[in-house]
Amino acid sequence: MDWQATELNNAWRYAFMALIRDSPAHRDAQALAQGVAGWHRHMGILDAQLQRTGAYAAGADFTLADIVLGLSTQRWMATPMVRPPLPAVAAYYERLSARPGFLQHGRNGIP
After folding, report:
1. What is the pLDDT of residue 1?
2. pLDDT digits (tens, 9 = 90+) for 93-110
3. For domain 2-105, which architecture applies?
4. What Gene3D superfamilies has UniProt attached to this entry (predicted)?
5. I need a surface site. Which of 16, 70, 74, 110 has the fewest CB within 10 A?
């Protein structure tokens, strides 16, 4: 959870503010490209972890870490941008989407 709060959140901040919030302070094309690349790189780290665990962030069982990482995954999936193929993240997103709570609070149409 610390990684999500300090590393992953910082990676997506500029891109999210530019692409979702349409913030006037976040219109620098180079900073946006760097932000998107950093976001993808961090999601690649999550993809590698999910490949190791095979299901959820910490292993076979859903844990508290999956709440915060699931919300970050929802944000990544719902942001209008070209994403690299990350098959473990895509499978994780589908597993989370089978959970009613995630559909209500995560995959609810809001990035």
Report:
1. 86
2. 999 999 999 999 999 998
3. Up-down Bundle (1.20)
4. 1.20.1050.10
5. 110
Residue 56, strand partner residues: 59
Domain ranges of the chain: 2-105
Q: Is 22 left (phi over 0), alpha (psi -120 to 50) or beta?
A: left
47 burial level (CB within 10 Å; 0-12, 13-18, 19+): buried
Question: Does the model's pTM come out above 0.90?
Answer: yes
Give the rounded distance of the alpha carbon of 73 from its chain centre. 3
16 burial via Cβ count (<10 Å: 0-12, 13-18, 19+): buried
- 13-62 pLDDT, tens digit per residue, is 999 999 999 999 999 999 999 999 999 999 999 999 999 999 999 999 99
